Amino acid sequence: MENIYMLSDAEITNRISAKIKEIRLKQNISRQEMADSSGVSVSSIARMEDGEIKSFESFLRIMRSLGKIDIFMPMLQEEEISPNEYYKMVQSAKRNQRKRASRSNSNNKEQEESEW
User: Fold this and answer.
1) Where are the domains of the chain?
2) pTM over 0.85
């Protein structure tokens, strides 16, 4: 497979669009059936299969109706941090916490004793 970063956005969109159509046809689903199951209009599906993916929400609905929503799992997973990284993060947060000023009676006494 070629490097995806070497492809233009238009080429990636065209390949994804062609794949959507291919999957739909392999599953023997008509555009009308896909529209009914996804809530996306037939004309939007036709445009999407022709390379015009305008709405990400519609794209997600179609991927869900095709049973392909799992391709987004890597994007939804939280990155795990190591115990060492967690420790550093906690220590940094502790260092950056504001400290409360302590009440000092000595300042009050000095002000009272002042001749002003």
Assistant:
1) 4-76
2) no
For residues 55 and 61, give the distance between their C-alpha atoms in angstroms, rounded to a whole number.
10
- Scanning 1-115, the segments in alpha helix (DSSP H) are 9-26, 31-38, 42-49, 56-65, 73-76, 83-96, 105-113
Query: In sequence order, which residues have a C-beta less than 8 Å from that of residue 4 and are 6 or more positions away?
Result: 12
Give φ, ψ of 61 to 5 degrees: -60, -40
CATH no., domain 4-76: 1.10.260.40
Report phi then psi at 37, rounded to 5.
-80, -25
Contact 17, 51 (CB under 8 A): yes
The token duo for 25 is 């046809």
Residue by residue, pLDDT tens for the chain (116 residues) are 678 899 999 999 999 999 999 999 999 999 999 999 999 999 999 999 999 999 999 999 999 999 999 999 988 888 787 888 888 888 888 777 766 666 665 555 555 555 65
Find how far residue 29's CA is from the centre of its chain.
Answer: 29
